[in-house]
Each structure stands twice: as structure tokens, then as C-alpha cells.
């Protein structure tokens, strides 16, 4: 395994590089994101394994070419997620380190003075809509959608692409129903989401964001005269009290639709790969439905391909010290929850897929602290319903190609698979 400085030899840190803050006393080579993938889609890229083995917070060159810190150790990532001295905004966002070309999470936001107030307000607005109770009421509808999708797959040709037959349509149909968005437009959402999350093509990402936002803005205006039992209608009704403008409702809805299907889609794909690649675990799940919740938590822990950005970005609002390093105000740090979920100090035998783990599976796939994912309950319900029926509905389900032939979406923010051929 190469030393971390050999992951991309020849890349030097430049104190004058765009987005760099702080004092550089030496010239050093930096690991370059995105790292090369492992031998198959389930492997942690060697570059991240080396950073975790080094067990320290260090600097990397981002996909966009700027310099940022990166944390991979479980204790560091957890502490930094909860640290109020970090945020998504920057006082000079145009000078802040860029992480990628993505229109979402690619750099700093511009609400530095109001970020905390904005975040608290957003959580108070959306928490009732995504409460565990309300999500639980969706479970029968989710179950019905899964049954319909699997029936169609069973009636079709073999091999089938599980990604196209189940992993993509299910989360889109669910989040569209929750938000009140026409599911018939899901191919548009797919196109816009893929483009918005592109890590290298900024014009493409920004154009897609603009089209997606315009669509949502038009939908909000249309729904004003046709309110329903959905989140967008709830936001419209709450607008006078919360002083919500149309653009803010459209922006929130765009973000919810993107996040509400992309990450769950990836976990359905990768959860299936993990189970089919570990037949004893699959057999255990078939035999004991009570294992579904713990199986889903293990899929959440190991079922992320991480994307190419390296982690979720935060910016220091003031100087802070952690694990022997000083992060200066304005500097960026990537929090790699995907890598932290493989930390041996937090998980016994961390690289082993084990749906019967006895100890608490406190993974950070939904982040931690004040920014804990508001859609966690929804994601869990979708995954629990999928993996409670998939293997028994298709008792001989197996990959139609060797796992080494599965391909990642390397230029996508959320990663994921390009396809998942299966047969039975």
C-alpha cells in the first residue's frame, strides 16, 4: 500500500492557490481527490484506507484543485460534525476552497451571517413533515410500490437491471408523493440530479440546477391554487407565518427531491451487492425477518460508495484545534463519514458485512449532531421494506456479472452504481 504522499506524487501545496487560507511554511505533496477506486465497488479506495491508517487529520487537494483538510477517523469526524465552530457558509464564498464543480455541496454558501438562524428555521419547518410518525404512515404505500416494481421485474426479461427496475424508481416515487411532485416527470429529475451532482463540469451542473429550480418554482406557483396533503403544500400554507418566499420554497423542495432519492437509490444498489456477495448473510436474512432492521443499519454503514468529493464539506468560523492540528478560520475540512464507518476503533472487524452485529451500530451515514439527516426515518423505512421482501421474492437472486465488472459513477456527488445486472 502506498504512503499517502505517493497517492498522487507531484501535486504541491501552493499558499497562493485559490481557496487556500492559512500559512504554509513548507512545500509538500498532497493526496489528490478523487482517489482511484478499489478492486471492486465494495472496497474502500486505497487512498482513504491510507489516510485512515495514518490516523490523523491532513490536507488534500480537492477535485476542484483547491486545498482542504480531511478527517477520516471516527472520533474526529463525529466531533467535527457536532462542532458549532464549523458551518457550510463562508464570509467570502467566492474565495473559499472549492470542493468540486457540483452545484450542490461543491463549495461554501453565502449566508454566513444568518446560517445558524437559517438552519434552525429550516429544521423547525421540515421536522414535522419528516417525523418518524409521519414516515411510519408511509410504510404501507412504500410496501405497495415495491411489490408493483418487483412484479414488473419478475415479468420482464432476464437478466434485469435492478438499478432501473427498483433502486431508481422507488425512492423517486416515494419522495414525489411526499413532496407533491408529479412522478411522471421523474426522468427529468434523474437528468437534472445527475447533472447537478457532476463533480467536474460546472456549467453543466449550474445549468441543471437552474432548470430544476425553475421547474420547482413553477410547481409552487401552480400548487398555490391546488393545495394537497404534501410537504410543498405545507410550506405554502406556512409561508405567511414563516415569511417564506416562493424562491425559498422552490429551493428547499429542489434540495429535498435531490437528497430524497439519490442517497437511498445508492443504498438499495449497494445493499443488494453486499447481500449477494455474502450468501451466508443473505440466507440468514431470508430465514429471520427480525434481522431486517440490523441488516439495514449494516447496509447504511457499508453501502456507500462515497462519491468523488471526499466527504461533506465544512468551513471553520474561527480557529480550532483538534487531534494535534489547527484549522484556521475560513479553511475547509472534508468529513469522510464513509471512511470513518470502517474505523476499527469504532467497529469490530469493520470491513466485514455482518447483519447480526451485537454492539450498537452507531454509523455516521446520516451525519451527526445538529445536521443529522432530516430524512433518516424515510430512508430507513424504504430500505427496511425493500430488504424485507427482495430476497424472498427472488430466492435465487444473484449478480448477472462478476462484482468486479460493476462500475461506479465516478463523477457523481453521491457516487453509486451505473447499473446492477441481476438474474434469478
UniProtKB/TrEMBL annotation:
Keywords: Heme, Iron, Metal-binding, Monooxygenase, Oxidoreductase
Pfam assignment, any one: p450
Cofactor annotation: heme
Entries under Gene3D superfamilies matching the protein: Cytochrome P450 (1.10.630.10)
Annotated SUPFAM superfamilies: Cytochrome P450 (SSF48264)
Superkingdom assignment: Bacteria
InterPro entries assigned to the protein according to its UniProt record, in alphabetical order: Cyt_P450, Cyt_P450_B, Cyt_P450_sf
Record-stated family: Belongs to the cytochrome P450 family.
Entry protein name: Cytochrome P450
Amino acid at each position: 500500500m502506498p504512503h499517502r504522499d505517493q497517492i498522487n506524487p507531484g501535486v504541491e501545496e501552493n499558499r497562493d492557490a485559490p481557496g487556500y487560507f492559512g500559512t504554509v511554511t513548507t512545500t509538500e505533496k498532497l493526496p489528490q481527490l478523487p482517489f482511484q477506486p478499489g478492486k471492486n465497488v465494495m472496497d474502500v479506495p486505497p487512498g482513504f484506507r491510507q489516510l485512515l491508517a495514518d490516523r490523523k487529520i491532513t490536507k488534500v487537494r480537492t477535485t476542484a484543485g483547491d486545498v482542504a483538510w480531511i478527517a477520516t477517523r471516527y472520533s474526529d469526524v463525529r466531533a467535527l460534525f457536532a462542532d458549532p465552530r464549523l458551518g457550510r457558509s463562508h464570509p467570502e464564498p467566492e474565495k473559499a476552497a472549492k470542493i468540486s464543480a457540483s452545484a450542490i455541496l461543491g463549495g461554501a454558501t453565502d449566508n454566513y451571517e444568518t446560517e445558524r438562524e437559517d438552519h434552525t428555521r429550516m429544521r423547525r419547518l421540515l421536522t414535522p413533515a419528516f417525523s418518524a410518525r409521519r414516515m411510519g404512515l408511509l410504510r404501507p404505500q412504500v410496501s405497495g410500490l415495491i411489490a408493483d416494481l418487483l412484479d414488473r421485474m419478475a415479468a420482464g426479461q432476464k437478466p434485469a437491471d435492478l438499478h432501473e427496475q427498483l433502486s431508481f424508481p422507488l425512492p423517486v416515487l416515494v419522495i414525489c408523493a411526499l413532496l407533491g411532485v408529479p412522478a411522471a416527470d421523474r426522468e427529468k429529475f434523474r437528468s437534472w440530479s445527475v447533472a447537478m451532482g457532476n463533480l467536474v463540469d460546472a456549467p453543466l451542473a449550474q445549468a441543471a440546477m437552474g432548470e430544476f429550480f425553475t421547474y420547482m418554482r413553477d410547481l409552487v406557483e401552480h400548487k398555490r391554487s391546488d393545495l394537497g396533503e404534501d410537504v410543498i403544500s405545507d410550506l405554502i400554507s406556512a409561508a405567511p407565518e414563516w415569511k417564506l418566499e416562493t424562491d425559498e420554497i422552490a429551493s428547499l423542495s429542489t434540495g429535498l427531491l435531490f437528497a430524497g432519492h439519490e442517497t437511498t437509490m445508492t443504498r438499495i444498489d449497494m445493499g443488494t451487492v453486499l447481500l449477494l456477495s455474502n450468501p451466508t448473510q443473505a440466507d440468514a436474512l431470508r430465514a429471520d425477518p427480525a434481522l431486517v432492521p440490523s441488516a439495514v443499519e449494516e447496509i447504511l454503514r457499508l453501502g456507500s460508495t462515497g462519491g468523488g468529493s471526499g466527504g461533506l464539506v465544512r468551513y471553520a468560523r474561527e480557529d480550532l484545534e483538534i487531534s494535534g492540528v489547527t484549522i484556521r478560520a475560513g479553511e475547509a475540512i472534508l468529513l469522510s463519514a464513509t471512511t470513518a464507518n470502517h474505523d476499527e476503533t469504532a467497529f469490530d472487524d469493520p470491513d466485514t458485512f455482518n447483519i447480526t452485529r451485537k454492539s450498537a451500530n452507531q454509523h455516521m451515514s446520516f451525519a451527526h449532531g445538529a445536521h443529522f439527516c432530516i430524512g433518516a426515518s424515510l430512508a430507513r423505512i424504504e430500505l427496511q421494506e425493500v430488504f424485507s421482501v427482495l430476497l424472498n421474492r427472488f430466492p435465487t437472486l444473484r449478480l448477472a456479472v462478476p462484482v468486479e465488472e460493476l462500475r461506479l459513477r465516478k463523477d457523481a456527488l453521491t457516487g453509486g452504481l451505473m447499473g446492477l445486472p441481476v438474474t434469478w
